[in-house]
Specification:
Number of helices: 6
Order of helices and strands: HHHHHH
Number of domains: 1
Number of strands: 0
CATH architecture: Orthogonal Bundle
CATH class: Mainly Alpha
Distance between the termini: 57 Å
Radius of gyration: 18 Å
Shape: globular
Length: 126
């Protein structure tokens, strides 16, 4: 028993040092992160701005919002937006998809990407 308690204590001390991916994504935090995207995208209605609307983005094929003029790269990407592809794209869009028109540099923090993806999931397609 004496050996278990110090080991348990050491594990508890390390919890704050665990990778972000282990922690649950937070849609409320994602809503704040989405403020960086609001100039070009909307989530709550199927109306595109400078960028396509993002309603129902999770599970949608890339380059398929009707009426939006996508780059050739996005139209021919043959991607389905799931958590993994969104995370990779949001990390650095131009590196993930050469030729994309998206001018956003990306989100460096994995926690920001996880939170914004969680927030986007709360806006399904109509």
């Amino acid at each position: 028993m004496r050996k278990i308690i110090p080991g348990l204590f050491a594990c508890l001390l390390m919890l704050p040092l665990m990778p972000i991916g282990v922690q649950a994504a937070d849609a409320a935090k994602g809503k704040r992160v989405f403020n960086k995207c609001k100039a070009c995208h909307v989530l709550d209605k199927p109306k595109s701005k400078l960028g396509p609307h993002l309603m129902g983005i999770v599970g949608r094929a890339s380059g398929t919002v009707e009426g939006f003029k996508y780059s050739k790269a996005m139209r021919s990407a043959d991607l389905v937006w799931d958590e993994a592809t969104l995370d990779a794209f949001l990390t650095k869009p131009k590196a993930f998809l050469k030729g994309t028109k998206m001018s956003f540099n990306g989100l460096k923090k994995a926690s920001d990407r996880a939170d914004i993806i969680e927030y986007m999931k709360s806006f399904p397609a109509q």
